[in-house]
């Protein structure tokens, strides 16, 4: 069993700014329960650092603090929901953080989000709120001809994909009217590089950065750790993993059926990408996933045509059925 040497704990508590005196008291009591030598690190909202708060009392109780440069405001305050990350202004924030004389790291966003943008008449309503669509991916929308795509960048260089419905349409249990816009906000290598360049200029007591967050199983809108490290310049790995096919036995009785997954499809490229999947023997038939743009182009060949920004880490293609066992390969078609 691997032994882990515990150096300390980090608390992720988004205390209201007005309650910082109570938070400082909590941290003081919390330390009393820790073993000697263990450190305390806390995440910190940027609002805590405005004038007149008790942030200094809080930081006196900890060994390290991590200001979060993401999700700094509500719907009205961050551009109608069209941003997650906040641009790191080293000139502004360097003196603010360094004045405490204590170690700190910067929290950098690597995750994405999808939501329904209110139509113009709805956005003027006092009760307008963002509707989040956690189960939709860019591929779900991009393969639907009812939507038109517009791409922009947030101030922190996040990729913003805005798909506007031109007619009434349905995707799963989601109904869309003309004028509805589905928006995806995504961290990209450019987002990470811009954040890292700004962080390096802060200097002083800055000890590094913390990337938030590790992608969960099946998650599609969060950057993969390898891609984050490459973009941040923290690894010498020359390139991302090549695309491949993961074939999982479907458990059929009289034939050989395999569920095929396209792994490491090129993510967030502005150009469409076509993949050719070849089987080592002829296919009896193929059952495509209903959302995947795939078709048989030969007795032992499949073609997958991904629209712009449609690639992700793992994508279910469909079930291939053969009389005997088969191997599968994939290549990018230029």
Description:
- This protein has 334 residues and is of the alpha+beta class.
- It folds into 3 domains: 8-108 and 190-232, TIM Barrel (Alpha-Beta Barrel); 113-186; 244-333, Immunoglobulin-like (Sandwich).
- It is 17% helix and 33% strand.
- A 5-stranded antiparallel β-sheet has the order 6-5-11-8-7. A 4-stranded antiparallel β-sheet has the order 13-14-19-16, with no helix packed on it.
- Strand 7 (147-153) and strand 8 (159-165) form a beta hairpin.
- The longest helix is centred in the N-terminal third of the chain and has 13 residues, at 20-32.
- The radius of gyration is 24 Å and the shape is elongated.
- 30% of the residues are buried.
- Residues 74-79 and 123-127 have low confidence and may be disordered.
């Amino acid at each position: 069993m691997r032994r882990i040497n515990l150096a300390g704990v980090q608390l992720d508590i988004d205390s209201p700014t007005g309650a910082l005196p109570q938070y400082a008291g909590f941290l003081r009591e919390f330390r009393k329960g820790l073993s000697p030598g263990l450190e305390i690190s806390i995440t910190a909202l940027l609002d805590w650092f405005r004038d007149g708060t008790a942030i200094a009392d809080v930081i006196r109780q900890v060994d390290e603090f991590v200001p979060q440069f993401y999700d700094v405001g509500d719907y009205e305050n961050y551009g109608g929901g069209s941003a997650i990350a906040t641009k790191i202004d080293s000139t502004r924030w360097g003196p603010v953080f360094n004045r405490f004389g204590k170690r700190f790291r910067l929290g950098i966003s690597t995750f994405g989000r999808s939501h329904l943008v209110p139509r113009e008449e709805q956005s003027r309503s006092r009760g307008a709120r963002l509707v989040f669509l956690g189960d939709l991916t860019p591929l779900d929308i991009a393969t639907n001809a009812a939507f038109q795509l517009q791409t922009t960048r947030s101030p922190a260089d996040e990729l913003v994909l805005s798909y506007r419905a031109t007619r009434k349409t349905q995707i799963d249990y989601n109904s869309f009217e003309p004028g509805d816009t589905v928006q995806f906000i995504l961290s990209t290598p450019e987002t990470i590089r811009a954040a890292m360049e700004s962080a390096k200029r802060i200097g002083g007591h800055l000890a590094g950065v913390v990337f938030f967050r590790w992608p969960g199983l099946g998650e599609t809108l969060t950057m993969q750790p390898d891609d984050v490290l490459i973009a941040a310049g923290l690894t010498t790995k020359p390139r991302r993993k090549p695309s491949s096919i993961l074939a999982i036995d479907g458990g059929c009785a009289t034939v050989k059926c395999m569920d095929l997954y396209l792994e490491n499809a090129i993510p967030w490229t502005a150009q469409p990408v076509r993949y050719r999947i070849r089987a080592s023997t002829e296919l009896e038939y193929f059952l495509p996933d209903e959302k995947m743009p795939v078709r048989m182009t030969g007795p032992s060949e499949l073609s997958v045509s991904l629209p712009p920004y449609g690639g992700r880490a793992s994508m279910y293609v469909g079930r291939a059925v053969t009389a005997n066992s088969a191997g599968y390969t994939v290549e990018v078609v230029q």
